[in-house]
Amino acid sequence: MAKVDFYILSAAESSARWQFACRLVEKAYRLNNTVHVHTTEHGAASRLDDLLWTWRDGSFVPHSLADTTAAERPPVTIGYTDDHLQAGCDLLINLSDEVPATISPFPRVAEIVTSDDNDRRLSRARYARYREQGHTLDTHKL
Prior knowledge:
Strands 3-4-2-5-6-1-7 form a seven-stranded parallel β-sheet, sandwiched between helices. By secondary structure, it is α/β, with parallel strands linked by helices. It is about 35% helix and about 25% strand. The relative contact order is 0.28. It has a single domain, classed as 3-Layer(aba) Sandwich (Rossmann fold).
């Protein structure tokens, strides 16, 4: 079973969620972890791909979209379908509104939640789903 961490942000804007995702990706990468970020659709995956190049001066996180063919897989991948889930990664960051179909290959999962009412409602449903599946849950208010 995975350890699932819910990071509850005080900000309501979706941009706060994206910025925190970049921070989390960078921190995990610097700790030599492999990361897969699961988004809702191709546009969101592309947006995060672009943001990881520009979000902070001096930051470098080698990454690519999961649907890109590369000779060697970078430490960070970004996908938007269950087929893109990169088994063998140390961390799954879920930016989707639903729990991915298969999270068992991931020892850790991160959920990022803004203070937006709809975002919180959707996160409560994901929390309940993870609990039903028997995962270890923890909440961090930021």
